[in-house]
Amino acid sequence: MQNNSQEMTVEVIQVETLSRPGENRRIIAQSRGHEVVMDMKREMMGDDSGPTPPELLAMALGGCMVNIARIMMEQKGVKLNGLQAGVSGPIDPSKAMGLESSNPTGFAGLTIHVKLDADLPEAERRAFEQELSNRCALCDTIANPASLDIRFGWSS
């Protein structure tokens, strides 16, 4: 990040991850040397050793909101006393299990509950909320889906 008195510029970040099967229903995902274990609930033949991929997506969405809110408060010079973001939404696993369903394969919708405790004047809160919603990368990706290019490669 470069910061001059007039304008700030940032470079595009290339996100790269790799996921592979682990024991039983576990999925091991890696990015930048970090590892996350995903798993299925015991009722779905997993070991319940980590969040499911959809739960991880919801957690990432909440994390993105928390991160951007914190950055915005710092940029505004506002003291942040408390912050949390909860994400919820229904998902029908029917199609993932190979069953017919008229419901979407993924989330039918997502709700983000952001709780803020900050010294931001009441008159500035609505503008802050709108700006936060607009600056959250995952909110934008979900609300305005990115193109998806799925490529397969087979060995033997």
UniProtKB/TrEMBL annotation:
Organism classification: Bacteria, Pseudomonadati, Thermodesulfobacteriota, Desulfobacteria, Desulfobacterales
Protein name: Uncharacterized OsmC-related protein
Pfam (any one): OsmC
